[in-house]
Amino acid sequence: MNVKQKARIMYAAASLLLLVIVGYNTWSYYAGYCTVATLTRFSIPAKLLLLGIAIAVVFLFSSKAKNRNLAKQNTCGCGVLLRSRWDYCPVCGQKRKELG
Ligand SMILES: [Zn+2]
Asked: 35, 37, 34, 99: which is closest to 72 by C-alpha?
């Protein structure tokens, strides 16, 4: 499975989830279980969920930035990814940059 297929599946799953949420809220509104006022108010579980999402997003972006920096440090000027034990690039022969 390539990246495009994974992204397509993720978008389809997110769209389906959104449709289910909108459908459930619309049904509960017309069935009289909630009003417009309760739809716009956040309950305690919803606040905890939003806090969890915010923490997860911060963690995701920090981990992506860390991986990007690691890949940049281990990449030679010619574009070859260097293994941790390699002191020289096998393609261009350049010495590995000192890690600052
Ligand atoms: Zn190189």
From this structure: 99
